[in-house]
């Protein structure tokens, strides 16, 4: 009897092409692009930033590092509850953010504080968000390191893994439908490439040619899971092949290389050529967050080689070679940054310890519901009768 679904002879097992098993294939197809060598030298033809702009971004990198170090100290002192930073990843964060246009929206992960500050978020506002006090733009509703800055088109950070990927795709699609000239950029770690939002976001963006730059901060670790246990792929960039989009792999500790790759990706997106998956190869020097002790799963000898690849050290050597920065200027810059952080801390600590009670119902609906107004009146009456009602812990804070 003829079976219509049979379209050929009986299936036999055929070994795959040897090419499919060739070690290093995708490392060749997606070479690591670098502009600044570890000694600070660079090919002049590859330099895309004038010295003044490179120096400006270097200052942001130094501020980002000093801020992370100071906030980790505050968390250890019990002054903030949590912190997650980007020590060792500053070139990836600031190189990508600086390469986008001001009209573009940023959909961050949770290590892109430097991008928020670059987009104009006041340092004191960022610190208030960590405290959750009266100056907190999030009105105490988010945990620390989950800031948002609407004036700078920097969307709210959220903890679930990879949700920002599909959100960025949706935001860019909406802009495309409205005829707005906007390219979205979103960040995620290599661990997020195993999450369903990664696949959904990239597939939909590629099919519709949505203007998005997908930035994977491949920092070697998905919390305690090393990259080689996270994916069998030789590179993250090669994952772009499955979705029919462009993929690039760049030295994430090289500010100029990151900037150039992001500019290329943005230009393609703006020209209607669709999204790009950009893999920035860097390393997470510290723990995943202040709640993590990497010594429990990561030998110290794995970290030492990456400390020598420090993106700030490399950028400083580059600027020094160019005659744009000497030791005295660098020392003065670092003193200025530390003072800036200290001033922001003092200003933040001057705010009331908590947001005003009436902000409980602000920004939930366009206008508070009558039930909310009644509840607010009850709360205000309870606090008036006994101020301790505003503080369930009954402390003096």
Question: Keyphrases for this structure?
Answer:
397 residues, alpha/beta, two-stranded antiparallel sheet, 7 strands
Describe this structure in words.
The protein is an alpha/beta fold and 397 residues long. 42% of the residues lie in helices and 8% in strands. The protein is built from 14 helices and seven strands. A five-stranded parallel sheet has the order 1-2-3-7-6, with helices on both faces. Helix 2 crosses helix 3 (90-99) and helix 5 crosses helix 13. The longest helix is centred in the first third of the chain and has 26 residues, at 51-76. It is globular and about 75 Å long. The chain starts with 24 loop residues before the first helix and ends in a 12-residue tail after the last helix. Residues 1-14 have low confidence and may be disordered.
Give the SSE layout.
Elements: H1 25-29, H2 51-76, H3 90-99, E1 106-107, H4 113-118, H5 123-131, H6 163-177, E2 184-189, H7 196-208, E3 212-218, E4 221-222, E5 225-226, H8 227-230, H9 240-243, E6 246-251, H10 255-270, E7 276-281, H11 300-307, H12 311-321, H13 327-349, H14 370-385
Parallel strand pairs: 1-2, 2-3, 3-7, 6-7
Antiparallel strand pairs: 4-5
Helix pairs in contact: 2-3, 2-12, 2-13, 3-10, 5-13, 6-7
